[in-house]
UniProtKB/TrEMBL annotation:
It comes from Acaulospora morrowiae. Gene3D superfamilies: 1.10.287.370. InterPro entries: Prefoldin, Prefoldin_subunit_alpha, UXT. Pfam families: Prefoldin. Belongs to the UXT family. The lineage of its organism: Eukaryota, Fungi, Fungi incertae sedis, Mucoromycota, Glomeromycotina. This is 15548_t:CDS:1.
Length: 155
């Protein structure tokens, strides 16, 4: 194999590694991280609801973030119902018990989705290791060692 062919193989592997695999890995990491934040928000909400229930609070005074860490005092005159974002920015009025049941189901669904992202991250990482191995093989070729090049690594 000529040096020009080897250089083309190296460029092809590096391009695939940087332009496809590393980009996919970062996107998947970011999506999973966003899911973890959503799970955390639901857990906080559930804890607040349980606190309201356990203390049998009929009204509530609290501080509400109106954006950019600016807080205002808020008074909730009746804690019988709560509005929960159920997705796509739809808010549904639920009783506290209904909200807890919804949150528990939502948590399970989000954990399943995050598990899928974790599996995807593992697959992409394995592909990255394969490509690095192929690059190592190509570099060994340049040193004169006998190596069989693979073209089946590209997705």
């Amino acid at each position: 194999m000529s040096k020009e062919e080897i250089s083309k193989k190296i460029a092809r592997y590096e391009s695939f590694l940087h332009d496809k695999l590393e980009v996919d890995l970062k996107k998947t990491w970011d999506l999973r991280e966003k899911l973890y934040e959503e799970i955390s928000d639901f857990i906080k909400l559930k804890n607040h609801i349980e606190l309201i229930k356990s203390n049998e609070l009929k009204e509530l005074k609290t501080m509400v973030d109106i954006g950019s860490n600016f807080y205002v005092q808020a008074k909730v005159p009746d804690t019988t119902y709560i509005y929960v974002n159920v997705g796509f920015e739809f808010h549904v009025q639920l009783t506290l018990d209904e909200a807890i049941a919804f949150i528990e189901k939502k948590e399970i669904a989000l954990h399943k989705k995050s598990d899928k992202y974790t599996q995807d991250i593992a697959k992409i990482s394995a592909h990255i290791k394969l490509v690095y191995g192929a690059l190592t093989d190509i570099l060994n070729l340049q040193k004169g060692e006998e190596v069989e090049l693979r073209d089946d690594l590209f997705l």
